[in-house]
Fold this sequence. Notes:
By secondary structure, this protein is of the alpha/beta class. It has helices spanning 3-9, 14-24, 57-68, 84-99, 134-142, 153-163, 165-169, 183-194, and strands spanning 31-37, 76-80, 104-109, 175-181, 209-214, 220-224, 227-230. The protein has a single domain (3-230), classed as Rossmann fold (3-Layer(aba) Sandwich), CATH 3.40.50.1240. The chain has eight helices and seven strands; from the N terminus they run H-H-E-H-E-H-E-H-H-H-E-H-E-E-E. The chain has a seven-stranded mixed β-sheet with strand order 3-2-4-1-5-6-7.
Amino acid sequence: MSANSEWDTTDWLTSARGLVHWVGQQSPDNRIMLLLRHSHRAIISDHSAQFSTELTDIGKQMSFEMGKRLPIENPARFFFSFVPRCYQTAEEMANGTREAGGEVTEFEPLAILVAPEIANDKVWDALQPDGKNVTDFVNRWADGLFGDMIEDFEDYRVKLIEDTLGRLSKESGPAIHVHITHDLALMAIKRILLQRPVGYEDREPFLGGICSAIDSDGSWCLYDSGVHKPLSMPEY
């Protein structure tokens, strides 16, 4: 099967296809941000593999295909967790963007996209290695149920917004920012922007995520799970 056919028909890419479609409908005058879960990887069965598991071949191919489909009118900036699967996703997406004729002007790891600061490794016992209960974990963390074993959610919220939406707001002109992270940070920002606890249905498949945009009048909007709505920029 060709890469184009894989992109068009693979089930776990439904969210990614929706994101690309939405971004393609935005005005070239807009500032756009995508915050994505990394691409396809092997199942993680043990926490010891959390920071070493890489992308599968199909994960790399579909990252490249997604990068090819982003608009090329404006410069693209890529930010990512240094964990291999996130770095590889960003690298392949950036290569796809260049292949399509786009310009990549920044390619930078961001610590906030890795994980919150952990003071006690026992906190990981509450999160399944493959992340299937990540939404429950984020809700418990936001509600303070892990105490001082993990970075305070409010402190993390401020840094996460500053390095994502805040960074986009400082752009002087049209641009596309692509942030590649893990579902832990992605679910955290969903809880922040949706202003409610997250549920299992909020978890994103590989290459799924959220988008936001700032139009020429300075108005913000958010795209999540097929829904487009105005966004009030959170304070940070």
